[in-house]
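Readers outside the structure-tokenisation community will struggle with the description of the input data as it stands. I therefore recommend that a typical entry be quoted early in the introduction. An entry of this sort, consisting of the sequence and the corresponding backbone structure tokens, reads as follows:
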Amino acid sequence: KEKLQIDFLTMRILYDEGVRTLGELVEADPDDIADILEIDVDKAYEIIDAAKEILEEQEKEKKEKEEVVKE
């Protein structure tokens, strides 16, 4: 599965509209994201799903690092 790429302009628009972290993006309403970025809702869901995957990967890596430190 190909990872979704979000360009700088898209990130900047989201940031300017108050979506400043991946966590905030994950919690955002897809309709709001679609309106902000002037895209269709399906694409907004893709962006939100990609953010969820990134957060899950970060959490997994963090837990793995914590386990190594404990050993």
